[in-house]
């Protein structure tokens, strides 16, 4: 059950001039874990709320298993939602919070007890069923919110920034738990976050949004290694991709400055042959650039060294542009040192500076 389709979906609020979501198209297969990611205000939560039925769709179709459900009430959509703020009733115990929706649907007491205990077992909440929310930690409250969704046996789970109120260590732990839960339950999950690490580690496919428009849809590997445009290139990855400005010179090199040139491949030269001397952006990830001892055509000066455990991030100034280089901490590199850089040719992208599109 649950192939989901969003076809040409738009959202425009009554008091707004423009659209919050524009021409959103997405097919979701059963049991996928789809993550909508993007900066604040990009339309990801609005899209999720339209799927839930909490927001009206201005234009377009929302289809579940071939049936248009735009006008169906939220309760009739076979969808369970987990919010950012847990939304637990403070005066109720964990058991009462988890069983509340089932009581409203007038399920038999025995069945309610079985469902709640089964969900509590999966989530490690069995010993906490009699506690009130104020007696629980943030992670435990989030588990209760998940449990309330699980007991409904819905075929689609919607999660809106469910981990943003947790500390860093707990977020990592809960990420793993939600991924495990998804495999265990075999449901379809649509998950919203602004945290691209969350998106990369949990999703089967990622939908990257900006200003209400989908920028790219792909697996974590696809959006990382083949970004559609400069926005995706800089948004995905921590840190994002280096976008270095330059032109293609008559010798077929990408030139940042006379003393800083990168030899383009024949395919890359072909892609931009029509646009000689037009500014381009060369995209390369920090881990695909290395500091070498032999002289190369790219020389710069180290401006900053950030050490992070086994890795360090070097900020290297080349012709007034900062290039980030991910390196091992055992390399002896200091601030103000002059260094030669080598780029892994197989990982380079070219982007049109004006449109931002990958060539």
TrEMBL record:
Q: What are the GO cellular component annotations?
A: ATP-binding cassette (ABC) transporter complex, substrate-binding subunit-containing
Q: List the Pfam families.
A: ABC_tran, OB_MalK
The ABC transporter domain covers which part of the protein?
4-236
Keyword Phosphoprotein in annotation: no
Give the InterPro entries listed for this entry: AAA+_ATPase (IPR003593), ABC_transporter-like_ATP-bd (IPR003439), ABC_transporter-like_CS (IPR017871), ABC_transpr_MalK-like (IPR015855), ABC_transpr_MalK/UgpC-like (IPR047641), Mo/tungstate-bd_C_term_dom (IPR008995), NA-bd_OB-fold (IPR012340), OB_MalK-like (IPR040582)
What the entry lists under SUPFAM superfamilies is as follows:
MOP-like (SSF50331), P-loop containing nucleoside triphosphate hydrolases (SSF52540)
Q: Does this UniProt record's set of keywords contain ATP-binding?
A: yes
Xref: Gene3D superfamilies = 2.40.50.100, Nucleic acid-binding proteins, P-loop containing nucleotide triphosphate hydrolases
Task: Return one GO MF term.
Answer: ABC-type transporter activity
State the UniProt keywords alphabetically: ATP-binding, Nucleotide-binding, Transport
Q: Which GO terms describe its biological process?
A: carbohydrate transport
Span of the signal peptide: none
SMART domains cross-referenced by the UniProt entry: AAA (SM00382)
Its domain of life reads: Bacteria
What is the name attached to this protein's record? ABC transporter domain-containing protein
Starting at the broadest rank, the lineage of the source organism is: Bacteria, Bacillati, Bacillota, Bacilli, Bacillales
